């Protein structure tokens, strides 16, 4: 299997997905007046770890807003699956659906097949997280191949608070070639 991972400092690609009202949105574009955007890729409604993680992130939404970072999450689920999943979620940030295999590959995500029909009915992305800076470049990228491998929200948000502090002048890391 070959895979090409998207690089830190790369421009986040223009990816079209759907919001909860089935409207087309561009994943990397900010929907608010914030300077930065955090895109959380989750496996889908079938994943209880994703449900827990998305609910935990809600507790950090205000701290992210305080440092000018917009929070959104996306999966490969259908509109119906997202609607069902929302019944288990207590989040007020935008949730998107319809991430397709081509888009997942373009982001360099790990993609899994469902283990059974009870799990889900389509290939899905394993967890990933992208923080896009005001220039549209990937400031932080975290791509995992297992549902339990993702950044702890407190560590992630504390790090972003440090990076966003103008006194720290923190560069994009991991760009040595």
Automatic annotation (TrEMBL):
Superkingdom to which the source organism belongs: Bacteria
Matching InterPro entries: AhpC/TSA (IPR000866), Thioredoxin-like_sf (IPR036249), Thioredoxin_domain (IPR013766)
Gene3D superfamilies: Glutaredoxin (3.40.30.10)
Domain Thioredoxin: start-end pairs: 6-165
The name this protein goes by in its record: Peroxiredoxin-like family protein
Record lineage: Bacteria, Pseudomonadati, Pseudomonadota, Gammaproteobacteria, Cellvibrionales
């Amino acid at each position: 299997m070959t895979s090409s991972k998207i690089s830190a400092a790369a421009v986040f690609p223009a990816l079209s997905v759907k919001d909860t009202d089935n409207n087309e949105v561009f994943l990397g574009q900010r929907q608010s007046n914030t300077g930065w955007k955090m895109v959380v890729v989750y496996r889908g409604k079938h994943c209880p770890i994703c449900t827990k993680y998305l609910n935990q992130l809600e507790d950090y939404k205000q701290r992210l807003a305080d440092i000018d970072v917009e929070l959104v999450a996306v999966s490969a689920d259908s509109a119906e699956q997202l609607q069902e999943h929302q019944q288990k979620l207590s989040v007020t940030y935008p949730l998107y659906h319809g991430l397709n295999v081509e888009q997942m590959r373009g982001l360099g995500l790990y993609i899994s097949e469902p283990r059974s029909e009870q799990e889900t009915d389509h290939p899905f992305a394993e967890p990933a997280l992208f923080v896009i800076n005001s220039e549209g470049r990937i400031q932080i990228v975290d791509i995992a191949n297992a549902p339990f491998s993702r950044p702890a929200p407190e560590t992630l948000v504390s790090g972003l608070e440090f990076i966003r502090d103008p006194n720290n002048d923190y560069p994009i890391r991991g760009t040595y070639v």
